[in-house]
Amino acid sequence: MIKKTKIIPVFIPHIGCPNECYFCNQKKITGHKSGIDFNAIEKEIQTCYSSMNSNYEIEIAFFGGSFTAIDVSIQLKLLKIAYEYKAHNKINRIRISTRPDAIDDVVLQRLKEYKVDIIEIGVQSMNDEVLTAINRGHTAQDVINASHLIKAYQFMLGHQIMPGLYGSSPSKDIETAKASIALKPNIVRIYPTLIIKDTKLEDLFNEGKYYPLSLKASIELISIIYALYEINEVKVIRVGLQPTDNIRLEGDVLGGPFHPSYRQLIMTHIFSRAIVNLLKKKQLKNIHIKSSRSNINYIVGLNGTGKKYIKQELSIERLSFSEDDNSEGVIVICDDKSSIFINRHEIFEIFYNLRENLDVFKRNSY
Ligand code: SF4
């Protein structure tokens, strides 16, 4: 049986970052405002580790900031803490996240020495005009170089992209996803842009120069991008920022498509549209759908929105569901006479190719 992973998160504040990207207030995102307290980090890791059991794979992950742009002596102290756990077989993996222009041979050799496994880089956009507009301080070529080098050193590669940035558009964001996929990341995080308090984006918003994606427009766009990664077998490990004490609409998020169940909204959009498309010519009246609990949750949706959509679009009289956790992700759609079997990969393919998405592909502005 494949074990699930439990993460021991270590939040690294803004120190060492050479930039002020327009969307970022890293101190707020990590929830930490001061410098690094190594003793506190060691204690936090120990406490977290003690609460975990052997049913899980365990990973120490350094989040926030730009790990490899930090002063090397600080990097080494942090890496040593994690390395001790890995060297004693207490954890399975070490993960860091950083900027693409803070990757070179020396950096990667150091990370190899300390047994780091996963390197996530902040791609944000693969369009140089967008990268300049948000003061990112690196180019798309830096992402290409860093991705090739990380793979050459046989680390697991992660990309983080930010659709909806200042200066971008749906078509540029879809092109970014395609360019990212061409670099063969193993995993991706998709963060639709939010306006965080005390950032340049807040000023641009107040000056009427920047409008974030609405929740509805973001769901249409991010669903396409999500499906694109899934079809190309890149695992989407996160979509939307995780709610914390600060990251919520009444907290530091001033605008943009924030929702505490963002992934669920995306998945319901994808699953319900794909199922309607699959069944629309069949004129069915009674349908029963059987699949794993997670697939059924995605199809039914928050407050039954997916179920309502399917019933309405197909004019169905009766739509029922049952959970089958031995289904291995297959969705069985039955009417009185026959059954259709469809897997997740096919759902994403059907959704990605929907004609209604063509309009989003062509949009040149938000
Ligand atoms: S490089 Fe990363 S940490 Fe630095 S300002 Fe940009 S997003 Fe924030």
Short description:
The protein has about 375 residues and is of the alpha/beta class.
Give a written overview of the molecule.
The chain is α/β, with parallel strands linked by helices. The chain folds into two domains: 257 residues, TIM Barrel (Alpha-Beta Barrel); 91 residues, hypothetical protein PF0899 fold (2-Layer Sandwich). The strands form three sheets. Strands 1-2-3-4-5-6-8 form a seven-stranded parallel β-sheet. Helix 7 packs parallel to helix 9, helix 9 packs across helix 13 and helix 10 crosses helix 11. The radius of gyration is 22 Å and the shape is globular. The model has no long low-confidence stretch (mean pLDDT 92). It binds iron/sulfur cluster. The site of iron/sulfur cluster has 11 residues, from loops.
How would you classify the helix and strand content by structural class? alpha/beta
User: Per the principal axes of the C-alpha atoms, what is the gross shape?
Assistant: globular
The count of DSSP E runs of length 2 or more, i.e. the number of strands, is: 13
Hetero groups: iron/sulfur cluster
CATH topology of the largest domain: TIM Barrel
Beta-strand residue percentage: 15-25%
Radius of gyration: 22 Å
- SSE pattern: EHHEHEHEHHEHEEHHEEHEHHEEEHH
Helix fraction by DSSP (H/I, runs of at least 4): 40-55%
Biggest sheet descriptor: 7 strands, parallel
- From the N-terminal CA to the C-terminal CA, the straight-line distance is 45 Å
The CATH homologous superfamily of the largest domain is termed Aldolase class I
Overall CATH class of the largest domain: Alpha Beta
Unreliable stretches covering 5 or more consecutive residues: none
